[in-house]
Amino acid sequence: MLAYIVKRCAVAAVMIFMVATAVFMILHVVPGDPVEVMLSADGGKPDPAVAAELRTRLGLDRPLAEQYASYLSRLARGDLGRSFLDNEPVLKNIAQRLPRTLELIGAATILSLLVGIPLGVLAARNRGRGIDRVLGTATSLALSVPTFVLGTLFILVFALLLRIAPAGGFVPFSQSPATHLTLLLMPATAVAVGLSAIIIRMTRSTVLDVLQQDWVRTARAKGLREPRVLRRHVVRNALGPVLTVTGLQMGSMLGGTVLVEFIFNWPGMSGFLVRAVEHRDYPEVQGVVLVTATLFILLNLVVDVLYSVLDPQVRAS
C-alpha cells in the first residue's frame, strides 16, 4: 500500500511541474503586453519611457529563460509572486477567495452524494419499473440543462416569485452562520443538480453489475437479509467507480463554477481570475491556474488511494 501511494505521489509531482511549465510558456507566447494593458486603462497611448521603466520593474525585460528560472525558484519556496495590478502577494489573494469556491464545491458534492447514491441504488433495485424510468428521465433532463440556466431559474422562482430565499450575495460564516448557509444553498444546489444525475446513473450501473456477481448470490444463499446484502456486499463494491467519477467531477467544478459564482454574486475565484485575464496579470493567472490544477491532481490522488482501499486489485496493477 505504501509503495502504491509513493508511486502515485511521484506521478502527481511530475504532473504539477508539467502544468507549471505549460502555464508559464503559454502566457508568455500569447500575443499582448501586460504593461501596455495596465498603462492604457484610460484609453490613451502609454509613454514609451514609462512603459520601459514599468517593464523593468516587473522583470518582463529579462530573457524568457531567466524569467522561467526565477518563476521555478519562487514556486519551490511557495511564492506565487506579486500581482502586477495591486502589488499584493498572489498567494494572499488566492487564499482569500479559494475557500469560498471550495466551500461551494464541497457543499454541492455532499448534496449530490446524499441524493445520488440512494436514488441510484433505488433505480437499480427497480430496474425497468416505473421509478427507474422516472429517474432516468429526470437525470437526462438534469444533464441537459446548463448550470447557469438552473441558477437563473432558481433566482426567478425562489427569490423573485416565491420570495423564500435571497437572490445572492455573501456573508461570512463567522458573522452570521444562518445567513451564510442560506446564501450558500441555492448556488450549491444549482451545481449539485448535474453531478447528482451523473452519480445516480453511475451508481445504478455499478450496482446492477455487482448484483450479478457470484458473491452476491452466495450471500443470499446463506440467508442474509437483503438490506445487509446491499449494504455489505453490493454498495461497497459498487462505490469505487462512483468515487472516481465524483472526484473527476469535483476537479471539473473547480473551473466550472465561474458562471454560478457570477450569477449568485458569490465572491470565489471566478471574479479574481476574470480580472487577472483581462489585465494580463501573469502572476495572478499563473497562480490561479496552478493552484486549481494542483488541487485537481491532488484530488485525483486521494481518489486513487481511496479506490485502492475499496478494491485491493488496483494496488497490484
TrEMBL record:
It is a multi-pass membrane protein. Keywords: Cell membrane, Membrane, Transmembrane, Transmembrane helix, Transport. SUPFAM superfamilies: MetI-like (SSF161098). The keyword Transmembrane helix applies. The chain crosses the membrane at residues 9-30, 104-122, 134-161, 181-200, 238-265, 285-310. It holds the Pfam family BPD_transp_1_N. Residues 98-307 form the ABC transmembrane type-1 domain. It is found in: Cell membrane. Belongs to the binding-protein-dependent transport system permease family. This is Peptide/nickel transport system permease protein. It comes from Bosea robiniae.
